[in-house]
Design goal:
Layout lengths: L2 E5 L6 H9 L17 E6 L4 H9 L4 E2 L2 E6 L14 H9 L3 E7 L15 H32 L5 H16 L11 H8 L9 E6 L12 H13 L3 E5 L1 H7 L4 H11 L5 H12 L2 E7 L4 E7 L4 H8 L1 H5 L1 E7 L1 H7 L2 H6 L4 E3 L10 E6 L2
């Protein structure tokens, strides 16, 4: 299962958000730095309204959503790459995740201490990214020293690897994270083996006060963050209120909906964050739907039908024959598999078929 790490400066709402995302109270939340030292881990269901619609068609009581893992990582501080604030340990935790959710404080509150003494979300983002880049710069330079020896020995691929490292080193030297470096598909595959911190897919969570959630689009901090991360980092951002989300943990779905409605908010920010993180990880969903259960299965974008079948069981992939497939929208519009089949929308796909997000599938195999 792929993992997303929640990171940020101390006291920006990371642990509160983790508790809300995982609907637990596992992570301690307190008004002082390094409240979290060892990372908390939680499995999170991916909200998907398509499951309820499929449940009605399949007439089953069992619904199993897709899931990803979230990790609450302790707050980083300036100097983390040199070991400040137990920085080396925390950077190691970040290295172990597949994507980053960077929480940015976008609210004023005299009762909640800010490690830098004032609220400035762009400065906070740059502090975190600088520490990641400094750590990466050290890693890249060490790797180039090793590759230089390989070059002298005439080892195959060393020249290409060094060229990629040189591009990344130049970007890091210029204050640009590795994820902004333009590489082709082959170069990206090579760069992935470097496990660089600043190369991880990243989404920014703008944490606002409960009273500001309904009007977040006009929040100057949120506006600044969105423009900055889009322009400088080519990243997405979402708005959440960690405090509100934390309060929703103890409410039933009906009570939570009523609470959000009173605030003038249509949907929990956590739902949007989880879905955005799921896609950030390059994950997509296909479904199986029958009387036994409706289930969401997680695949990577671009996976073929046999690969998708293998998510259920390796035998399905090894003995793959064909996939009976109907697009979610077509199935919902028709109202049943039989109706979709009558209209020619229920089709047979072979080994080369690339599964689309939302496909409803039945696999035929022989082992």
């Amino acid at each position: 299962m792929l993992r997303a790490g929640i990171v940020g400066l101390p006291n920006v709402g990371k642990s509160t958000l983790f508790n809300a995302v995982t609907r637990t109270r596992k992570a301690e939340s307190a008004n002082y730095p390094f409240c979290t030292i060892d990372p908390n881990v939680g499995i999170v269901s991916v909200p998907d309204p398509r499951l309820a619609a499929l449940q009605k068609i399949a007439r089953t009581s069992v619904v199993i959503p897709a899931a990803i893992e979230f990790v609450d990582i302790a707050g980083l501080v300036k100097g983390a790459s040199q070991g400040e604030g137990l920085g080396n340990k925390f950077l190691t935790h970040i290295r172990e995740v597949d994507a980053i959710v960077q929480v940015v404080r976008c609210f004023e509150d005299e009762d909640i201490h800010h490690v830098s003494g004032s609220v400035d979300p762009i400065r906070d983002i740059e502090v975190i990214n600088t520490e990641l880049m400094l750590s990466d710069l050290e890693s890249v330079r060490k790797r180039r020293e090793k590759v230089a020896k390989d070059l002298k020995r005439g080892e195959k691929g060393a020249a290409q690897e060094d060229a990629i490292l040189a591009k990344i080193e130049a970007a890091l030297d210029a204050g640009r994270p590795a994820l902004t470096v333009e590489l082709n598909a082959e170069e990206k595959a090579t760069a992935a083996t470097f496990f660089l911190l600043s190369d991880k897919p990243t989404i920014f969570a703008c944490n606002v006060k409960d009273s500001d959630l309904a009007t977040a689009e006009s929040n100057p901090y949120v506006t600044t963050v969105r423009e900055y991360v889009k322009t400088h980092l080519s990243c997405e951002s979402v708005v959440i209120s960690a405090q509100i989300e934390s309060e929703l943990v103890d409410l039933s779905p009906e009570e939570a909906d009523a609470f959000l409605k009173d605030l003038g908010v249509a949907e929990s920010g956590v739902g949007s964050l989880i879905r955005a993180t799921y896609h950030l990880l390059g994950l997509r969903t296909y479904f199986t739907a029958g009387e036994k259960e409706v289930r969401a299965w997680t695949i990577h974008a671009g996976d073929t039908a046999p690969k998708a079948a293998g998510v259920i069981h390796s035998d399905f992939e090894r003995g793959f024959i064909k996939a009976e497939t109907v697009a979610y929208d077509d199935l919902i519009r028709c109202g049943s598999v039989a109706a979709a089949r009558e209209k020619g929308l229920y089709r047979m796909e072979g080994k080369e078929y690339v599964v689309a997000d939302g496909d409803v599938m039945v696999f035929k195999f022989n082992v």
